[in-house]
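Deliverable D4.2, example record:
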Amino acid sequence: MRRHRWRARTLCVGPPAAAVSVMVVAMVGGCAGKLPPPDPRVGPVRLVHGAAAPAVDKLIDAVYARSFDVTQAQAQARDVLSAAPDSGAAHEVAGYLAMLADDPHEIWFHFWKAAQDLDAPATTIYLWEMNLEPTRGEREASLGLYEALRAAHPDPSVRFAASIWEARTLRRLGRLAEARAIVQPLGLIADWQMIGAFDNDAGKGFLTALAPEKKIDLSATITGPLLPERWRVVPTTDLDVVSIDHLVWPAGAGVAYLATWVRAEREIDAQLRVSTPDPMRAWLNGGLVLSEEHVRQADIDNLIVPVHLHRGWNQLLLKSAKTSGSWWWLNARFSDGKGAPIPGLATSRVPQPFTAEPDSPRPAETQPPELGSIAPEGRRMLLEGRWLTRGGNYPAALETLRSVLTASPSNLLATYFVALAHWNNEEAGKAIDLLDEGVTRAVDTAPAFLHLRARYYLQRHLYDKAQADYIHEVTITPAARLAEQDLADLYGQRGWRAERCP
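Output generated by the structure prediction step:
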């Protein structure tokens, strides 16, 4: 399934090329569109310190703090960027305006530029936003950015995120050895024992204490829902991901446990960082340190909790509770307090002696500290909402984004993201009300409302309404590449083969 704008999946990838062509991508089934000329704005990556300017502040205030006209805001952004072309904040605004315009290349370009500003406080979010559905040319151009950030960004968490995006992109482009070479030094745990899957009907398995939570006995046989379950060594992928859905059955919903033993050279306060699209519990040295049930999608390090590693061996047990769907996976690592790998850690699949600790669960990090200093409040809260969406905490994202809309009820950007948040929380009725409002208010200046409303209609088999919205969008904007793909899919579902490949 393609990852649409509401971020149903987050494992897409992104990449140095001087010329990027925006493909009006082949419509599924072999229909190809035209290739526009290369974008002359795309050149070598330059990491810079974007200068603050009063005009940038006025642009931020106009888009994040009040109602705005999309066309006027786009013109204001162009004027600001002509005077301050390296401003990450101005490119951030332009990127979000491009989301309203449903222009995937402009989204990619502006967040690609925003991430080159070393003073930008939301680079990790920019890397996520620019990977909506990049073309091959955009992926290749992104590689230069990832390499530069990996080598020179002052924030270790940004360097790690750039490394993962670069490795994913290289893998997507078939350059597997290069991808593996980037991942190897990152400290992702590759030594795992696993047991499962156990029953998780209606999510009840998340809080049900099963035998592995009481004692890890690798020789034990535990009754499973269909067959006896046993601990076994499991492999990781070339990017050190445990693909649980390839290792258990049934894989649609269930509970799996993974165990490893970690040796530290000294006592150290650290962070446990887990990337997973599913509810997760974690025990370190027998004590519960993480319990997060509200996880619906994954991105890099989307669950972070502070922990303490003893000198010598430490036991880590993870519990992954899949409720539905596919893509059941995770990876995990320990870092210092800023996200950098901890030197000297070693792991083992063989049980090792450790010092037991009591339960001390703490909430997962809800935002990186650097977001707290962002002003004005509307911008800070919107970026916090995007951060929470990126991490799969949809209920918290909805609450945060609703506060932006409450403060500025006519703000189209807030309206759009709150509609997405309701969608992600399976509150389709509330989502469609906001989408109708956006279509009415924005007329033809924010076709993203049309696109998402068409998806709403399509999911409910209201084909005529979906088709009308898609046709309207592709008629009013030549940049609607994703709407063209969806329209082709719709024609295919209706059996209209000739219309699908005009």
